[in-house]
Amino acid sequence: MSESQTTLAVICKALSESIAAGVFSAKGRLPSERALSEQFSTTRITLREALSQLEAQGLIYREVRRGWFVSPPRIVYNPLQRSHFHAMAKDQGRHAQTEVIDAKNCVASETVSQKLLLPPESEVICIRRLRYIDKRPVLYVEHYLNPLYFQGILDADLTTSLTDLYASRYDIHYGRVRFDMVPTLLPEEASRALRVTSGSPALFITRINRDQHGRVIDCDLEYWRYDALHIDVEVN
């Protein structure tokens, strides 16, 4: 093992043990890169490589212009369960928040039109939201709604559950749902919202929702921080 590899191993082992021991739990934040470089008598380049290895393991994460933080437990997500984001977080003892980035009528892309079974260049309702777990942004999502079923929804409180809003205001309930999940790199807009470097790894989930009558009512394009989510599916 080379000297640089030995140094990397020492840094990773020391920081992993400190994280496990709860050394950084008070603030959840690691010391600055400069302080860590001095602590381990190494260069910033070597330190960043070690931090990147710990990030790949899901132990820490970086926020642009804020530094490195200890990763909290991942949220467990079962796509087969009929539970919305806030309820899912509450069931796991976590605190959820939703921030609306914007909400408006727009012309659907060819891809969105196909997913909603609409003609090309159809007008749809677009709602972009940022969702937090314990004050940490973990999910950037674009919702595309068929306006035929949701007249006036842009006037509603869109920081709440759309699932509950559909039911209470429109008597629309989810029926069949189609999920598509692929690993990807975050696009610029999602990266900015999630406060990470553009091109960071993510889990991209596309969800096409039908209502109780079998009508395609909306589709969601979800970009999850890869270190924030644990997919757990059990089929009887």
Outline the structure in words.
The protein is of the alpha+beta class and 236 residues long. The chain has helices spanning 3-20, 33-39, 44-56, 85-91, 110-115, 162-170, 188-194, and strands at 60-63, 67-70, 75-77, 96-107, 123-133, 136-145, 174-185, 201-211, 216-225, 229-231. Strand 5 (123-133) and strand 6 (136-145) form a beta hairpin. The longest helix is centred in the first third of the chain and has 18 residues, at 3-20.
The ordered string of helix (H) and strand (E) elements is HHHEEEHEHEEHEHEEE
Radius of gyration from CA coordinates: 21 Å
Proportion of beta-strand residues = 25-35%
| Coarse morphology | elongated
* Largest beta sheet: strand ordering: 4-5-6-9-8-7
Can you count the beta strands?
10
> Treating each run of at least 4 consecutive H or I residues as one helix, how many helices?
7
Low-confidence segments:
none
Helix-and-strand structural type: alpha+beta
Major sheet size, sense and barrel closure: 6 strands, antiparallel
Helicity, in percent? 25-40%
What is the CA-CA span between the terminal residues?
Answer: 48 Å
